[in-house]
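User: Sequence in, structure out. Go.
Assistant: Echoing your sequence, followed by the structure tokens.
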Amino acid sequence: MKLDKKTHISVFITNDAEMKKLNKDHLGRDYPTDVLSFEIKEKLEDGSLYLGDIVVNKDQAKRQCKEYGNDLEEEISELVGHGVLHLLGIHHDGDGKPLKKDSSKSTDKIENDLIKKSSKSLKNSVKRK
């Protein structure tokens, strides 16, 4: 998928109860999860692309952040990044969608690469100020 500079996503932060409802309504799973992505891919009047929605469960992020060595803000950021990968068509086992045929990297590998790159970029921008 080719994205131009005018691509939009929406990010929603919610709780266990709402996430459980969304998960059941859209995927038939009767339990809360950490992140859901809803692909829209709609061309807007201004020519931009509305890629889709990402919903992050703050309650689940709180529970799992220590397991992954993150604080809450980092965990939510990683979940948003994970959701973006799904909007771009990159999936993994257990998503109920086929893995991308031409992708030799897992979502975990891609996420780790992105986190390393963004950390370096952030460190460099802090040094410049």
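User: And one key feature?
Assistant: The first helix runs from residue 16 to 27.
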